[in-house]
Each structure stands twice: as C-alpha cells, then as structure tokens.
Write a structure and sequence with these properties.
This is Cyclin-like domain-containing protein. This protein is an all-alpha fold. About 70% of the residues lie in helices and about 0% in strands. The chain is built from 5 helices and no strands.
C-alpha cells in the first residue's frame, strides 16, 4: 500500500514538474540587478563617500530582495533603479541628474 501510494505521488510530482517547466518555457536563468546597480552608480554625482554609502545600502537591498519573488516579477534594471531610489531616500542623499 505504501509503495503504491509513494509511486502515485512520485508520478504526480513529475507531471507537475513538467507543467511548471513548460509554463516558464524552460527559462531557469534569472539576471540579477548587481551589474545594473554598479553601472548606474558610476553616473551619480556628489560626495564620493556618500555615494559609496548609498550604493552599499542599495546592494544590501538587492541581497534582501533575493529572498523574495521580486527578481521574477521585475526586470533587473527596474530593481536596480528602485533600490537606488530607496537607498537615496533613506540616506537623505540629494541625487543630482
């Protein structure tokens, strides 16, 4: 009885796994925002120490976001801009254009 039930569960998992992979079109690669964060950070003007603190805070936010589904819901460029904005607001750094 146990072996039969275990086999049924195993088959069900395999079917659902196949459906999941087809749904995401076998795309298992997620691009992270770190590269964009660093690229955008080079465009910031202002006190170097303050900019460095802002980037470190934004980097921490990206790290924290990896524990969520944010990377699956938004493009990495959007996440990079969002964490920079949040870090700027929290550090009260006046970001110039």
């Amino acid at each position: 009885m146990f072996l039969r039930k275990n086999h049924v569960l195993q088959e069900e998992v395999m079917v659902l796994e196949r459906i999941l992979l087809q749904t995401i079109k076998f795309d298992l690669q997620v691009e992270h925002p770190y590269r964009f964060l660093l690229r955008y950070a080079t465009q910031l003007k202002g006190d170097k120490h303050k900019v460095q603190r802002l980037v470190q805070m934004a980097w921490t936010f990206v790290n924290d976001s990896l524990c969520t589904t944010v990377a699956l819901q938004w493009e990495p460029q959007i996440i990079a801009v969002a964490v920079m904005y949040l870090a700027g607001r929290l550090s009260k750094l006046d970001i110039q254009d």
